[in-house]
Write a structure and sequence with these properties.
The protein has 324 residues and is an alpha/beta fold. 42% of the residues lie in helices and 15% in strands. The chain is built from 13 helices and 10 strands.
């Protein structure tokens, strides 16, 4: 399956992994890249540029295929501006294949990244933001629909509408994010004008993901349905989509009281999630997953997942083409 994304990044399938705090690590990243997609390392997993560099080099020992790095430029109590500078410097020096940027535009870093041959994409949830990052010189855009896990833009536009709107508004390649977990979603994204898809939640239900999270989380993904996520931290102007559980209910109760960050922070801190991923305490953390949990039926290897997705998508597109 060839698209502008496979040609740009040198990958077999137009399927990319999105950033996931504490989870997008070299082991899972390399497995996805070895399977023909684009794996991802999340920079915020690491407390310094040197640690990120070590992770990139560890990944290169596990795969000779391209992979990317995610950096989310949002206010953080843990990541200082100096750390962000170090992340980008390392990515340029290590010449990673691509970068997924979230939050604020990475304008000041683009010249160094492009000089190093790094393809830079920004994740957006609105046409106006896609047009802006194109004008800044980005290589592509990730169109993130309301269904996604993590932090969807509060414009609340779904993938079905957002992908074609952005695809018709910019001239750089568009990748669909949110609502994709199988070949049907890949086929739909291509039909809507995207050049590929990005998934995160679906990659957690792979055999290789067991290297970075407890199996309890995989069992939860399979058991839950599409209506069992909800939006939290809207009161902080940073809405996030998370699995409904005991902790999330507590967070929503506190938000309904118009409580401030001081009460919320201990419940939403990334350190709490980091510990839970290892202990398997699903009810005690904010598990940021998308509505695609309703589409996840089993755990597969990354290779099985990507091969089946592209085969299914190809069959769907051929079948639909034959009807006209």
């Amino acid at each position: 399956m060839k698209t502008k994304i496979t040609e740009m990044l040198g990958i077999k399938y137009p399927i990319l992994c999105g950033g996931m705090l504490w989870l997008s690590k070299p082991e899972l990243c390399a497995a996805i890249s070895n399977a023909g997609g684009l794996g991802n390392i999340t920079a915020a997993n690491y407390d310094s540029g040197d640690e990120l560099r070590a992770a990139i080099r560890q990944c290169r020992e596990l795969t000779d295929k391209p992979f990317g790095v995610n950096v989310t430029l949002l206010p953080s109590l843990r990541i200082t501006p100096e750390k962000y500078d170090a992340y980008f410097q390392v990515c340029a020096e290590e010449k990673v294949a691509a970068m997924e940027i979230g939050g604020k535009p990475a304008t000041k870093y683009l010249p160094a990244l492009h000089a190093a041959g790094v393809k830079v994409f920004h994740k957006v949830g609105a046409v106006r933001h896609a047009v802006n990052v194109e004008s800044l010189g980005y290589d592509g855009v990730y169109a993130a629909g309301f269904e996604e896990g993590g932090h969807p833009l509060d414009d609340d536009v779904t993938t079905m509408v957002l992908t074609p709107r952005i695809a018709e508004s910019v001239n750089i390649p568009v990748v669909t994010v949110g609502g994709v977990a199988d070949g049907r979603g890949l086929a739909a994204a291509l039909a809507l004008g995207a050049e590929g898809v990005m998934m995160a939640t679906r990659f957690l239900a792979t055999t290789e993901a067991r290297q970075v999270l407890h199996e309890n989380f995989q069992r939860e993904l399979i058991a839950r349905q599409e209506n069992e996520t909800t939006l939290i931290t809207k009161s902080l102007n940073l809405q996030g989509r998370a699995l409904k559980n005991k902790l999330v209910k507590e967070i929503l109760d506190i938000e309904s009281e118009k409580a401030d960050l001081e009460r919320l922070y201990p419940l939403i801190t990334g350190q709490r999630a980091k510990a839970a991923y290892q202990t398997g305490e699903v009810e005690e953390m904010t598990f940021m997953v998308g509505q695609t949990i309703g589409l996840i039926k089993e755990v597969k290897s990354c290779r099985e997942l990507l091969e089946q997705m592209t085969e299914e998508a190809g069959e769907i597109l051929r079948r639909q083409s034959a009807r006209f």
